[in-house]
Structures are given as structure tokens and as C-alpha cells.
Amino acid sequence: MRFKDRDILVTGGSGALGRRVLEQMQREGGRVTVIARAPVDGRNTLVGDLSTAHGLETVAAAVAGRPWDLLVNIAGIQHFGPLEQQTPEHLLASYMVNLIAPARLAQAVLPGMKGRGRGQIANVGSIFGSINFAHFATYSSAKAGMRALSQSLRRELTGTGIDVTYVAPRAVATPFNSDRVNEFARLTGMAVDDPDRIARRIVAAIRKNRRDVYLGFPEALFVRLNAVAPGLIDGALKSNDLKARALFAG
User: What does pTM read for this prediction?
Assistant: First the structure.
């Protein structure tokens, strides 16, 4: 999709990665609206909270009926640690933001896209949605759902003129990573990518109407291995899983 003179809706556009993505689309002539919990300086902002059912419905109602050409779901929240240490409120919010909001917003924009016979939905997931890491249980499972949502929608929308792109980066060097995540990356040698480079690759995947894009090596290879032989990946990750567990001991 070319971005010039297109109406583009972006979640997570106030974050470090999302901001870079929308800025590039704006440089290419896109008319970008950001969904955020508070007005974003210099941006056309639709204010709303995607982490609650009421907030999401308010946003979906505001989105419906407007002529969107492209929906880009980037917003995400993360819990790193044992599942039992995640608060119930944060657990529910994780699934709301990472999975339910992308599905609900797709519902809201699809009638207009179908009516015009064109459009695109781009979901920015994570390698963690295909290689389900220990201590990222809700994040990994929600991103796995986003991957499945993308594939299901793509099949459902065959022949409608609407494309669906799924892009899965590995870890990116942004404030999204907590101090503990950064410590885990240091202990395990986990690669952390430059956000400018990843933003360019996300935009390129959307522009080229790519289907499923996995960023990073060897992670992209592990995605395929995990699909056919998850036991091999269990063994490969065991040492790092134990290192992560040690971060929460005591």
C-alpha cells in the first residue's frame, strides 16, 4: 500500500517504536490518527483506553463509519515474571490491549473497507508469539492469538481487496523493556534490535503488502523449528529459562 493521501489509524503510536512507524508513514504523505490514552503533541489523536472494555468500545464507536485505508495495531503491554506474580488487573489488561483491541478495531474498520473494496490491516506482534518464552506467559499467548487472528482474517478476506500483514519483531531497544527484561537480555545474550531499523522494516512490510514477516536471525529459524519440533526449542531455551527464574528467586 502506498501511504500518500491514505487515512491511517495507529494504536501504540505514542510509544518509541510506534512513533517511528507513524512518522515514516507521515513523511510518505499518510494522514495518521493515533489512538492514545492522552492527546499526543503534534498528532491527530483519538483519546481512549484500550485496556478496558468500556474504553475499547468508546474507541470502536468513534472509529466505525470513518473511511480508514489502513489499521496498524502496535500497542502492547507486557508482564515479565512468574504468572502468579502478575496482578489480575494487569493480566486482563494484557489480553485487552494485545489481542482483544486489535480484533475489535478490525471489526470496526472492516465494513468501510469492504464497502470501498480495498484496505489493509497490519498487526505488529512478536517473535514471542511463535516461540512462547517462559516468564512471558500472557504476552506470548496474546501475541500468539494476534498471529492466529491475522491468519484467520487473511483467509476470511480473500477476494475482498483487503490485505492482512503480520510482522513479528524480536526484542527492540525501547522503554517498553523493563529493567528486569534488560537484565534478562544481558544475562542470556538475547539480541535487542535498533528501533529505527525495525520501524523501517515494519513500514516496508506494510507497504509491500507482505503476509507473515519474522524479524531477526536465528529467531526466525526457531519459529519454524518450534512449529514442527517444540521439544528441540524446549531444550535450547532451558538454560535461559533457569537464568530468568533466578531473577525472581526470593
Answer: 0.90
